[in-house]
Specification:
This protein is α+β, with helices and mostly antiparallel strands. It has one domain. The chain is 28% helix and 19% strand. It has a four-stranded antiparallel beta sheet. Strand 3 and strand 4 form a beta hairpin. The protein starts with 7 loop residues before the first helix and ends with a helix.
Protein backbone atom coordinates (compact mmCIF):
# COMPACT_ATOMS: atom_id res chain seq x y z
CA UNK A 1 0.00 0.00 0.00
CA UNK A 2 1.46 3.32 -1.03
CA UNK A 3 1.38 6.36 1.20
CA UNK A 4 1.49 10.12 0.82
CA UNK A 5 3.67 12.24 3.06
CA UNK A 6 1.07 15.02 3.04
CA UNK A 7 -1.77 12.75 4.19
CA UNK A 8 -2.69 13.26 7.88
CA UNK A 9 -4.26 9.80 8.03
CA UNK A 10 -0.96 8.25 6.98
CA UNK A 11 0.85 10.03 9.80
CA UNK A 12 -1.83 9.08 12.33
CA UNK A 13 -1.41 5.42 11.39
CA UNK A 14 2.36 5.53 11.01
CA UNK A 15 2.93 7.13 14.43
CA UNK A 16 0.36 4.90 16.18
CA UNK A 17 -1.84 7.81 17.26
CA UNK A 18 -4.35 5.38 18.72
CA UNK A 19 -6.57 6.04 21.71
CA UNK A 20 -4.52 6.78 24.79
CA UNK A 21 -1.39 7.54 22.76
CA UNK A 22 0.30 10.86 22.03
CA UNK A 23 -1.60 12.92 19.48
CA UNK A 24 -4.90 11.04 19.76
CA UNK A 25 -6.72 13.96 21.38
CA UNK A 26 -6.16 16.04 18.22
CA UNK A 27 -7.38 13.48 15.68
CA UNK A 28 -10.98 14.61 15.45
CA UNK A 29 -12.75 12.72 12.66
CA UNK A 30 -9.57 10.82 11.75
CA UNK A 31 -10.01 8.68 14.87
CA UNK A 32 -12.80 6.67 13.25
CA UNK A 33 -10.85 6.24 10.03
CA UNK A 34 -7.97 4.60 11.88
CA UNK A 35 -10.20 1.59 12.49
CA UNK A 36 -11.82 1.53 9.05
CA UNK A 37 -10.73 0.15 5.73
CA UNK A 38 -8.77 -2.97 6.62
CA UNK A 39 -11.05 -5.06 8.84
CA UNK A 40 -9.84 -7.63 11.35
CA UNK A 41 -6.52 -9.25 10.53
CA UNK A 42 -6.18 -12.77 11.86
CA UNK A 43 -3.61 -15.53 11.78
CA UNK A 44 -5.18 -17.06 8.69
CA UNK A 45 -4.99 -13.93 6.55
CA UNK A 46 -2.48 -13.69 3.74
CA UNK A 47 0.73 -11.82 4.31
CA UNK A 48 0.56 -8.09 3.66
CA UNK A 49 3.27 -6.42 1.71
CA UNK A 50 4.71 -3.19 3.03
CA UNK A 51 6.13 -0.23 1.17
CA UNK A 52 9.93 -0.16 1.20
CA UNK A 53 11.72 3.18 1.36
CA UNK A 54 15.50 3.39 0.94
CA UNK A 55 17.59 6.23 2.41
CA UNK A 56 20.96 6.52 0.66
CA UNK A 57 23.71 8.13 2.76
CA UNK A 58 26.40 7.63 0.10
CA UNK A 59 28.95 5.00 -0.76
CA UNK A 60 26.19 2.49 -1.45
CA UNK A 61 25.15 2.51 2.23
CA UNK A 62 21.43 2.68 2.86
CA UNK A 63 18.83 2.47 5.57
CA UNK A 64 15.76 0.55 4.43
CA UNK A 65 12.38 1.30 6.01
CA UNK A 66 9.57 -1.20 5.50
CA UNK A 67 6.22 0.46 6.23
CA UNK A 68 3.18 -1.81 6.60
CA UNK A 69 0.16 0.25 7.65
CA UNK A 70 -2.22 -2.71 7.43
CA UNK A 71 -0.37 -4.56 10.15
CA UNK A 72 0.79 -1.52 12.13
CA UNK A 73 4.30 -2.89 11.75
CA UNK A 74 7.30 -0.88 10.58
CA UNK A 75 10.83 -2.25 10.33
CA UNK A 76 14.22 -0.60 9.84
CA UNK A 77 17.17 -2.35 8.26
CA UNK A 78 20.62 -1.51 6.96
CA UNK A 79 22.03 -2.45 3.57
CA UNK A 80 25.69 -2.11 2.57
CA UNK A 81 27.45 -2.92 -0.71
CA UNK A 82 27.70 -6.68 -1.12
CA UNK A 83 24.73 -7.47 1.14
CA UNK A 84 21.80 -9.22 -0.52
CA UNK A 85 19.24 -8.44 2.19
CA UNK A 86 19.04 -5.68 4.81
CA UNK A 87 20.22 -6.52 8.33
CA UNK A 88 17.56 -5.77 10.92
CA UNK A 89 18.14 -2.77 13.18
CA UNK A 90 14.76 -2.65 14.90
CA UNK A 91 11.00 -2.56 14.43
CA UNK A 92 7.91 -0.92 15.85
CA UNK A 93 4.47 -2.47 16.20
CA UNK A 94 1.73 -2.89 18.79
CA UNK A 95 2.94 -6.20 20.21
CA UNK A 96 6.69 -6.73 20.76
CA UNK A 97 8.30 -3.48 19.66
CA UNK A 98 12.04 -2.71 19.61
CA UNK A 99 12.19 0.77 18.05
CA UNK A 100 15.08 2.33 20.00
CA UNK A 101 17.72 1.95 17.32
CA UNK A 102 19.57 5.24 16.99
CA UNK A 103 20.87 7.98 19.22
CA UNK A 104 19.78 11.48 18.27
CA UNK A 105 23.23 12.51 17.01
CA UNK A 106 23.32 9.43 14.77
CA UNK A 107 19.88 10.13 13.33
CA UNK A 108 20.78 13.76 12.66
CA UNK A 109 23.97 12.77 10.80
CA UNK A 110 22.11 10.19 8.72
CA UNK A 111 19.32 12.56 7.76
CA UNK A 112 21.72 15.37 6.86
CA UNK A 113 23.49 12.95 4.52
CA UNK A 114 20.20 11.78 2.98
CA UNK A 115 18.39 15.13 2.67
CA UNK A 116 21.35 17.34 1.81
CA UNK A 117 19.09 19.82 0.02
CA UNK A 118 16.06 19.50 2.29
CA UNK A 119 17.04 18.97 5.92
CA UNK A 120 15.15 18.65 8.14
CA UNK A 121 12.60 16.97 5.91
CA UNK A 122 11.10 13.63 4.89
CA UNK A 123 13.94 11.40 6.06
CA UNK A 124 13.89 12.81 9.59
CA UNK A 125 10.10 12.80 9.78
CA UNK A 126 9.98 9.10 8.87
CA UNK A 127 13.04 7.88 10.74
CA UNK A 128 12.69 9.74 14.04
CA UNK A 129 10.37 7.00 15.32
CA UNK A 130 13.51 4.81 15.45
CA UNK A 131 15.52 7.25 17.58
CA UNK A 132 15.45 8.14 21.27
CA UNK A 133 16.94 10.93 23.37
CA UNK A 134 19.10 10.32 26.43
CA UNK A 135 20.57 12.33 29.29
CA UNK A 136 23.43 13.88 27.30
CA UNK A 137 21.37 14.94 24.27
CA UNK A 138 20.39 18.46 23.26
CA UNK A 139 16.69 17.68 23.59
CA UNK A 140 15.50 21.23 22.86
CA UNK A 141 17.45 21.15 19.61
CA UNK A 142 16.13 17.70 18.75
CA UNK A 143 12.54 18.75 19.37
CA UNK A 144 12.92 21.87 17.24
CA UNK A 145 14.44 19.85 14.40
CA UNK A 146 11.72 17.17 14.47
CA UNK A 147 9.05 19.88 14.55
CA UNK A 148 10.63 21.52 11.52
CA UNK A 149 10.70 18.18 9.68
CA UNK A 150 7.01 17.54 10.29
CA UNK A 151 6.09 21.14 9.46
CA UNK A 152 7.96 20.95 6.15
CA UNK A 153 5.50 18.28 4.99
CA UNK A 154 2.27 19.85 6.25
CA UNK A 155 -0.03 20.84 3.36
CA UNK A 156 -0.42 24.59 2.92
CA UNK A 157 -3.40 25.87 4.86
CA UNK A 158 -4.03 22.56 6.65
CA UNK A 159 -5.23 23.15 10.24
CA UNK A 160 -6.35 19.64 11.19
CA UNK A 161 -4.38 16.86 12.85
CA UNK A 162 -0.68 16.74 12.10
CA UNK A 163 2.11 14.99 14.04
CA UNK A 164 4.22 17.13 16.35
CA UNK A 165 7.60 16.88 17.99
CA UNK A 166 5.81 16.71 21.36
CA UNK A 167 4.11 13.49 20.17
CA UNK A 168 7.50 12.10 19.18
CA UNK A 169 9.16 13.09 22.44
CA UNK A 170 6.41 11.41 24.47
CA UNK A 171 7.52 8.10 22.93
CA UNK A 172 11.24 8.79 22.55
CA UNK A 173 12.27 10.40 25.86
CA UNK A 174 14.59 8.09 27.81
CA UNK A 175 16.22 10.76 29.95
CA UNK A 176 16.50 9.73 33.57
CA UNK A 177 15.71 6.10 32.73
CA UNK A 178 19.09 4.61 33.73
CA UNK A 179 20.28 3.88 30.20
CA UNK A 180 24.08 3.64 30.04
CA UNK A 181 25.99 3.67 26.77
CA UNK A 182 29.17 1.68 26.13
CA UNK A 183 31.71 1.51 23.29
CA UNK A 184 34.50 -0.85 22.30
CA UNK A 185 37.74 -0.34 20.40
CA UNK A 186 36.06 -1.13 17.08
CA UNK A 187 33.73 1.83 17.54
CA UNK A 188 30.63 -0.24 18.22
CA UNK A 189 28.18 1.41 20.65
CA UNK A 190 25.43 -0.25 22.64
CA UNK A 191 23.41 0.48 25.75
CA UNK A 192 21.91 -1.26 28.75
CA UNK A 193 19.19 -0.20 31.14
CA UNK A 194 19.22 -0.91 34.85
CA UNK A 195 16.76 -0.58 37.72
CA UNK A 196 13.05 0.17 37.72
CA UNK A 197 12.04 2.93 35.33
CA UNK A 198 9.02 4.76 34.01
CA UNK A 199 10.01 4.05 30.40
CA UNK A 200 11.77 0.99 29.03
CA UNK A 201 14.65 0.87 26.56
CA UNK A 202 13.25 -1.40 23.85
CA UNK A 203 16.15 -2.27 21.58
CA UNK A 204 18.20 -5.15 20.25
CA UNK A 205 21.17 -2.75 20.49
CA UNK A 206 22.10 -4.02 23.93
CA UNK A 207 25.32 -5.87 23.20
CA UNK A 208 23.36 -8.56 21.41
CA UNK A 209 24.86 -10.42 18.47
CA UNK A 210 21.53 -9.84 16.73
CA UNK A 211 22.36 -6.17 16.21
CA UNK A 212 24.50 -5.30 13.13
CA UNK A 213 27.03 -3.17 15.00
CA UNK A 214 29.72 -3.22 12.31
CA UNK A 215 27.28 -2.39 9.52
CA UNK A 216 25.97 0.61 11.45
CA UNK A 217 29.52 1.82 12.14
CA UNK A 218 30.31 1.68 8.42
CA UNK A 219 27.15 3.58 7.52
CA UNK A 220 27.74 6.28 10.14
CA UNK A 221 31.31 6.72 8.94
CA UNK A 222 29.95 7.29 5.43
CA UNK A 223 27.76 10.16 6.66
CA UNK A 224 30.90 12.08 7.64
CA UNK A 225 32.27 12.20 4.07
Amino acid sequence: MAFALQDPLFWARYTFAHEGEAGFERLGGLAEQLDDGFGDIGDDDEDFEGVEVAFDVGGGCRLVLDVCLELDHHELGILLPGMREPAQLGWDDLAQWHPHVLRWCELASICQAVDRERHPGPALALLCRFAAVFDDDDVDGAVATVEAAYSSLRPAGWTGYWPTAADWLARADLRGQNVTWYANEAGHRWARQSGDNNADFYSIRQGSDKFPHEELRVLLNETRH
